[in-house]
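discrete fold record:
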Amino acid sequence: MNATLKVGLVGWGAIGRVVGTALVEHRIPGAELACVVDNRPLGEAAPAPQVSFDEALERCELIVEAAGQGVVREWGERVLTSGTDLLIASTGALTDEELSKRLLAAGPGRVYFTGGAVGGLDLLQAVRSLGPLDEVRLTTTKLPGTLEQPWMDEELLSRLRTATGPVEVMSGTARDVPVKFPKSTNVAASVALAVGDLDAVRVQVVADPGAHHTRHVVEASGAHGSYRFEVAHLPDPGNPATSQVVPYAVLRSLAALAGRTGQIL
């Protein structure tokens, strides 16, 4: 690998713009933005050459996915089999167990995940070594408008649009929920990846017109201890379905992969 990690960025949206700008401004020592992939012509908005996915694989040592679950499904395996590493922001794609197995088995490229908008995943991964957790619950609360989906019926949409307080939108497992909310529940998949079991994580999605912050509460317990993590983030002004912190979680992961010393992994 070269001294400078050549990074290809897929997606020039709320996450991609922050990540790409930081790379261009050399705020991640040891990493540089080599190219951008996006399905829209970006013109001068792109601070690096806009290329096809295939060309990005030739130019880069690491692809950063910042464009949604569909990119992971369509291109994930191909990135890894080309020998290029892949950093995934849209972890919700991994609720497809067959896709997850294929990605984890593919190579020689390596696949990485970023924690995104939730913390404590490293501790949950460590706890797994002590034995299974008896209960894992995630409650995600967001503004109603960010949770509206094409599959919703008029009754549910009306409840969301007229809500004056918290409304439960869906409850299920980390296998079920991210599929229904592909832009809003990557956290559920991230918790499941940490725990190692999609069906063990119970997820509740709540719409609240007073939710000026996006809130995630993770509660887990087992014979060896109990754990609770709560985070409240400002939504990204350009894309309220994601939290402002997410691109900075991607940058932190990038810094670790580029070899920055002195940070907690």
